[in-house]
Request: fold
Amino acid sequence: MKVYSTSECAACYFRTAADYPSKKSLLQITERCNLHCKHCFVSSVCSGQDMDLDLILTKVIPEFVKNNISKVTLTGGEPFVYPHLIEVVEALRNNEISVCICTNASLVTSDFVNRIKGLGSIHFNVSLDGFSNDSHGKFRGNDSAGLFTHIMNNIKLLGSENMLNGILVTPNIYASIEEYKDICQFAKDNNAKYVLFNPLSEFGRGEESVSLSYTEQQMLDLRKAVEGYSDSKFEIVFIRFPNSNSIPLNKCPAGDIIYIFTNGDIAYCPYMVFAAKNSSSRYDYQDFVMGNIFSSSFDWNNDVNNYRFPITFDKVCAECINRECKKGCYASKIALGKHLEECDEQLCPLINGTNTN
Ligand SMILES: C[S@@+](CC[C@H](N)C(=O)[O-])C[C@H]1O[C@@H](n2cnc3c(N)ncnc32)[C@H](O)[C@@H]1O
Ligand code: SF4
Ligand code: SF4
Reply:
């Protein structure tokens, strides 16, 4: 189920929400990463915490099964630096849970792919922010010769096994619009279902590297240049692009996607947690944590299903005359040091537009 429709502006960082009544979860199995991307909202480095394998097998997966979580995305940090990735994938599949792995694709191996390909319902989302060793390497913090080609070959391998779901792109000044067109063609050629463009957001390291973002005009030019790649089998998704046509914003689906941090904290929305860690935030990240799955007092029904967010939607943009607008994204407001009740000014249809470029 899409988080937005074509008549609404995609204000949410998530592409899809859960398909009621089944639910979806993201599991941050490690904070560690082999790369050092300029924008990383997790601020991942080579050291950090891993989720305990035993706790995944004895606590997390049984909770997923009891609570109808039918899709899990493994994320990080970089999932491929987690030493027990294969065990986690196998355990999820043994419980008939579909698996998506969100990866920078630099550590994917043919051995790994051969081992999982018979398990069914396993897909990959690969992040690619440029289409050359130079641009990709500058943004992702490693421009060693051959790395980009190696990543390309890994993506081709996933594509040839029909395991490539989407390519995730954060447009940035190191890469040209031509490169982003090449990424779209490459994704199509390798059987991906979509390319998702989302802006460099001011969370984690993104707070300091916001100057690397495309400008609003470049984002509009990019949209124009790549939207023609969509067809009935292949989608181009634009997240939080400038609201040049003053379209009403979509509704925040927080709480529908369960994000579990490495330490067991369950976020109402992970982006709210990342945003709350910003220097300008008025909130503490714990304000957006529903509970901790590893705590002895944790109770899914009480902590997750019955969680009540501190404010109600009718308090957001309370004075606004635009009744169609569903008020956009809390995380973007938190990151900018605003109150939850305030308007998502970056996209608000009364403030933005009407530039049909
Ligand atoms: C945190 S990474 C974890 C998985 C894996 N290491 C990867 O790079 O795909 C998940 C996704 O978040 C994106 N991301 C991280 N920080 C971001 C930011 N500040 N703004 C937009 N996207 C960001 C990455 O580009 C990647 O697509
Ligand atoms: S975005 Fe992914 S690859 Fe880049 S530093 Fe963060 S976790 Fe690592
Ligand atoms: S706060 Fe809501 S709209 Fe924003 S990213 Fe989170 S779920 Fe999406």
